[in-house]
Amino acid sequence: MSTIMILIPFILASLFPFFQAQPLSSAFANQGQWNLLQPSIGISPMHMQLLHNDKIIMFDRTDFGHSYLPLSNGRCRMDPNEIALKVDCSAHSVLYDVATNTFRPLMIQTDTWCSSGSVLPNGTLVQTGGYNDGERSIRMFTPCFGETCDWVEFPGLLSQRRWYATNQILPDARVIVVGGRRQFNYEFLPKTPSPNSSPSSIPLNFLQQTSDRSENNLYPFVHLLPDGNLFIFANTKSVLFDYKQNSVIREFPPIPGGDPRNYPSSGSSVLLPLDENLDSLEPEVVVCGGAPRGSFENAARGNFVQALGTCGRIKVTDSNPNWVMQNMPMPRAMGDMLLLPNGDVVIINGAGAGTAGWEHGHDPVLSPVIFRPSETVNQFSVMAPASRPRLYHSSAVLLRDGRVLVGGSNPHVFYNFTGVEYPTDLSLEAFSPPYLAPDFAPVRPVIRYITNNNVLGYRVFCYVTFTVPNYASVSEVSIRIVAPSFTTHSFGQNQRMVVLKLSAVTYLAGEAYYATVMGPSTAEIAPPGYYLLFVVHKGVPSWGSWVQVM
Known about the structure:
By secondary structure, the chain is mainly beta. The chain is globular, with a radius of gyration of 24 Å. The chain folds into two domains: 33-436, Methylamine Dehydrogenase, Chain H (7 Propeller); 441-549, Immunoglobulins (Immunoglobulin-like). The chain has four helices and 45 strands.
């Protein structure tokens, strides 16, 4: 027997530990990682929307004076109705290019403070309301691949002032605009006047019933359910609402504890992923964080009450639905909840005490939390802390590469950088969740090709070709589509994820496979429009590819 043959058992024995499951070797793989993208973009973005050309439209408000980014080509905004500057040559909106990490100024005419938005099926952002001369404005931004696209505004087209309202894209491609300050009603866009059409705004008594002395029902949490009705949550209460018949179908139990979750108490909410591989869809809504009742008034007196540390979860189709309460690792108000490509939820930004409002937040919560709704134990994991507080008027959006982009934070009436505990922040950062760590490269899929020219038809088969170095099994693969959120004031409007029905994963050659999936069953499950499609393998997502559901 040769010396080599004798040594083989000892060589294999020495290598055996490396063939076993190894503990994660990097802090990145356990707690994620932060990176500063831009020290300043000139504005503090309280609103963000990712568009299908991988650019993010961001904007603040106009009524505080000049920003720190001039408008291009010597342009100036002239507005005789503006509260601050009648002539303003600075930008209050930017278009950020994710791929190049660059940005350019955009020009908004009317005040967008605390407004709302939705993306139409053609990719155009429809943005509604705001403050002062912007409270009834509709603004549109259509993505382009050059440097010419900018805001187009239609002043006065909303039927009511929409300040702190919520938008939701509907299955028929209309947008419903719900509520706003002292607006206990809703309306639809685009308007289609006809002899038999509904009035321009329609009363919704639920909003009046949920308003208290601090309001606590602004930016209501609105989720489109698979049956076509809306789940609407405001303050502590929620209803199943048939917007076609202007009828409350069902009242759900109040969330336990009796403490408010909406602005200015400012918790957050998501509709958990809708999985078309199940025999029946069971939509679940999660609401996390907020502030105890009376916190807004206390904060105005300098008494910052600890934020809420609980999440409530409810299956809205249960015959006897009830909230299941869970404790977060730490209390949080003004946090943003975003669906991650693998179905987890990140809770990011916010404060540990106080509420939304000028100077009303305290004790920044620097560490994001990952919530794993599919797990039964260890559902929450605390991530690496950020270095910059993100309090009132901060925001966050999911990127195509799986990172979370974070910006904003201006808890002051004006931009204030000195002499305050929490200065205005004009920077952009990215949080990379653990699944982006190099440790997971062997199981990370890469999308190579999507049939039908990246169009997903309803109930139409589609083939997604991907490569992965160490393929596991079909049970470890899912194909998911995500509708990017319009994020502002701790709520991602229109955000949703659908797990597509997977028929098979077929081996091609080398590291290549193709998945056979079916497009969404109905427009109620996935309204028409642009989505990010991800292949997820062993909990690790690919980069997203843009697809159009139609």
